[in-house]
Design goal:
Layout lengths: L2 E3 L36 E5 L5 E8 L2 E5 L9 E4 L3 E10 L4 E5 L20 E7 L5 E12 L2 E4 L11 E6 L2 E16 L2 E12 H12 L7
Parallel strand pairs: 1-6
Antiparallel strand pairs: 2-3, 2-5, 3-4, 4-7, 5-6, 6-7, 8-9, 8-11, 9-10, 10-13, 11-12, 12-13
Length: about 220
């Protein structure tokens, strides 16, 4: 049994966006030398024998991911130093967010940002690709639209549910949850355009507050 709430929210998996006429963001304290070890809050989630997604530790034994990546009536496994069974405890279908309960092995949760991204500010997309390898891609924030935070941080299949990080004064914080990559069909093939969309921190905050306040409808 898990708690869920629905709302009218259009999820666009692939869209074309423009980054013309954006001001330059001062590249100060962007943590360009930050080690991949700083991203230990991002984990791999096994959703079937051959498929995986990503998740972000946001609390003690709590992992946030995207709802669309999770199977219906199938087991979910959180993969850290060891494999741990995970249960879905809350879902927001409108925001495309899901909260899992699992053993996070004492890893520290990532701080959720309280600062808005500036155009062309450096961001990092972190998640596990379809080969279950942790991938870190640096990019720039473009804009916020109806389908989330758009950036030039490239993501691949399997990274949905991973983290979009920002860094200020060497402090990493969570700006969004990776949701999709921007793509187009060319000659019958789906082409990754190297841009991505993420669920923004404002939506994450509302989702977690509703869960903590026990105001999500029960299924």
């Amino acid at each position: 049994m898990y708690k869920a709430v629905t709302s009218h929210f259009l999820l666009v998996i692939a869209a074309l966006i423009s980054a013309n006429s954006l001001r330059t963001y001062a590249d100060i304290n962007d943590c360009s030398n930050l080690s991949i070890d700083a991203f230990d809050s991002v984990i791999s989630i096994s959703i079937s024998e051959n498929n995986n997604a990503s998740g972000v530790i946001v609390g003690h034994n709590q992992v946030l991911t995207v709802a669309h990546a999770l199977p219906i009536n199938s087991p979910v496994t959180a993969k850290l130093s060891s494999d741990h069974a995970a249960s879905i405890i809350a879902v927001h279908e409108g925001y495309d967010l899901a909260l899992l309960s699992t053993d996070t092995e004492g890893r520290l949760p990532i701080k959720l940002t309280d600062a808005e991204l500036a155009k062309q500010q450096a961001v990092w997309a972190v998640g596990f690709n379809h080969k279950k390898q942790k991938v870190v891609s640096k990019g720039q924030f473009l804009k916020t639209s109806y389908n989330g935070l758009l950036s030039t941080a490239r993501v691949e299949p399997g990274q949905s549910g991973g983290a979009l990080f920002q860094c200020t004064a060497d402090e990493v914080s969570l700006s969004g949850i990776l949701q999709s990559f921007v793509a187009s069909y060319e000659n019958g093939n789906l082409i990754n355009k190297g841009r991505s969309s993420s669920v923004p921190a404002t939506a994450i905050q509302q989702f977690l507050k509703a869960f903590q306040a026990n105001t999500l409808a029960k299924h």
